[in-house]
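User: I'm writing a tutorial on reading structure tokens. Could you give me a worked example: one chain, its sequence, then its tokens, then a sentence or two explaining what the tokens reveal?
Assistant: Sure. Here is the example chain.
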Amino acid sequence: MKIFAILRVAVRAMRRNKMRTILTMLGMIIGVGAVIATVSLGDGAKSQVEAQIASMGQNVIQVFAGSFTRGGVRSGWNNAGTLTVEDALAIEREIPDVTVISPEYRNGTLVAAGNQNWSTTIMGEGPDYLDIRQWPLEEGAMFTPMDVRAASKVAVVGKTVADQLFPDGNVIGHVIRIKNVPFVVVGELAPKGFSFMGSDQDDTVIVPYSSAMKRLFGATNIRGIMVQAKDEKSMAEVQDEITDLLRERHKIAPGHDDDFMLRTQDDIRQIADSASATMRILLAGVACVSLIVGGIGIMNIMLVSVTERTREIGIRMAVGAHGWDILLQFLTEAVALSLVGGFLGILLGAGSSKLFAYWKDWPALTSPFWVMGAFVFSALVGIFFGFYPAWKASKLDPIDALRYE
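And here are its predicted structure tokens:
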């Protein structure tokens, strides 16, 4: 039997019971739509996280204080003052593949300007911090190395802090009070938005690390060091050299734990990707259950169709149709139901993900790979669940089929 004749018979059979056809395809539509929507939103979230990680800068290694064991107690990063400004300067001076560094001291406190106040994060940084982070200024300028040496009372504010303390705008040159210490605003940061951890990157005030340590918090140690390697190829070597240098400076004996931690963007990206992949697999697995249910629905309807069309099958066999022709006919109908349902499911999934993205301001990326995969999978579902009814129809005895009422 020619393929076009088979398709024509299949279309006629589906049009004969329109409502049953629509309900049969509904399982495939919902299943494929759910897969496309969840994967699109998952890919969108992944791209957003990657963009936020990239916004941390290029070839950046973060050194955190802490992660050591003392008295049977293991301390996490930032809990111990194990890094000094001299450590940061030694990294910049003694490791050739390091371009710039920024010693860090962070703490939260209240800032005020006029009759406005706001609780925010104070970041004590070096003058090269914005270059490392690739963070441009909206207006004004970054403080200088001379400001760091003099522990000057100057500050660069994030967009959120600027909006809260100066709702009328024009922040440059104004004075803000940090723990009642006056600081002159010399720059305003361009907005960066939320980080992949969910924190507002613009809710910050950057001051020279020397000012944060001496004038604000009375600290003698820093919390971390941001290090920028000259290129991606040298990242691994720079990490090893930093580890060796700090272990030597801190007089850590072989076999003992480091009193610092190193993290790179790749480490953060792997953690984020792992969490994202787990969630996507979970959601896609739940959505695939709908595809299986849809396939079972197709098998059920095709078995009913075989029973209803038993006499038709007998007549076709009597006029020369072979068992293969009957099998191919019913298998084609099952695959057609799956493919049409899959196509409509792709439209539903892509449309719903875009609608959700517009509603929640959330990125959605519909991958052609997943679209094609969903379409092929729906065809395989039709073949798998449609084969048994088709095989059963092909094995009917022509004489018994003609007698069937």
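What the tokens reveal: Residues 83-249 form one domain. Residues 42 and 242 are 36 Å apart (CA to CA).
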